[in-house]
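Let's practice the habit of predicting before peeking. Look at the sequence and jot down your guess about where helices and strands might fall. Then scroll down.
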Amino acid sequence: MSRLASLIVRGRGGQSLLVYLPEIQQCPPTGVRLFVAVDGSTWTIPVSPQPGASLDAGDLARAASGQALPIAGNWPLQYRRPVAIDLCRSERSTLLQPGELGIDPELGRFALAPGDPAIPGAASPPINANAGPGDFSADYVEGFPDQVGALTYDRMLDPTQQATRLVSKFGEAPTPLTEAPPAPLPVHASVAAAVAAAADGEVIEILDSATYSATEATTLANSQVSALTIRAAAGQRPCLTFYQAVKAPAPASFRVAVAMDFLELNGLLLSGGPLVIENKVSDLRLEACTLDPRLGVSLLAADLDLNDRAAYLLCRCVAGGLQTGDGVAQLTIADSIIDQSGSIALAGLLGVGSPPIFSSPPLLASPPSSPPQIPRPAARNVQLERVTVLGRIHCEVLSASESILDDVAVAEDRQSGCIRFSRFETGSLLPRRYQCVPSEQDEAECPSGGRCLAPFFNSRRFGRPDYLQLAAATPAQILSASEQHSEIGAFAGALNTVRLGNLRAKLKEFMPVGLEPVIIAET
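Done guessing? Here is the structure:
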């Protein structure tokens, strides 16, 4: 007779699952086969299924009772008790009592009590002598106001563009459940290995949301590869980190050393060095990516040949500063956040070295008391569509629609381009404007020496769920500045002002007399 037991298994994506094994009377020598459900419950299946017969689960063998693992070594079974605690500093975990799990819901952090057996090396004797920092993982849900940046929303991947090469943290890939499964695709344990083996036109797909750590840049140096796509699988958000040591970013994350016709990064979170383009990339696309803006410049494009006429597109991205050479004729940014507050967000590149040389930020007040003097270089043609830009802009031609320019912008050619339905900083040198904030009347009414109709954000700190979301205290002119009379900036597509106005109208129409509704935002 076997006793009730539990088993921890690891799925192909690296997630752990607590499986509840049943108690079996008179277990046969050959054992008993079971189906395991997604919640960890077990079900019986036929011992000798007929060829071609369905393997639908039979009777429930043992129901699951949650995915909480008991504390190892404690008997009777004891589960960790969740308690609320302020984890603004890691040292505060010492305040936890044995058997407690500290949770800080505001900061999104948790901590185990000192000596908890789940901490590598804390158990005596150790549960796993080879355990290290990478053996501890957590599943979580990340909130954000809209579909911007690398998250797990539906990125509407092209179903006709199938992956040709796979990346999995554990080197495993699921097999399609078809009558005639296709030939297995090559599976790599790192993105660098997949890039090194890729051929022209391949699509590299990362199958999980694991963290892939590297100490040096992933280099694209194969001159035979002119087109390449690196993307996250549907519903996944892999994190690619590039650090030489703690708090020491690598000189680059990806480094493109050869000329390419097409390069696409889709659904990736990059933290560490910037994306460095050392040669011509005719068509660069960053879609639904997050390039950690806390580290400064996120893109250095050292294409200096005016005849290259490269086109770069950032769509639904979060990034730091972008600096492009003269070879990048068109830089288009849509539904995105560019965060380089207090420095240059969009500008040109002086030259290339190792690492590339870029212009030092000009000294500007915000707003300046006189027309700003920004030294060259400038980015060439910049087009912004529903973008929030924190930081200064210096370009030759600027076109912007439904965007927030939170700092000074300078366009060298003010006879070209247009700024429409956007908020700009007073003192900027811009092309013609249409329905922008502040208007000429607003500028006349604003006090001198201060900002005019400045936006207010719920948070300017990257990583918070309300990051760069317009606050309720934002001037009404900004909250209704778009062409649809809604808010402008990276979250303009959500139409929050319009939706909130519709909700208030319905509440006013249907609420009983004497009751006042209170609207509470999720973030």
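How did you do? Residues 1-67 form one domain.
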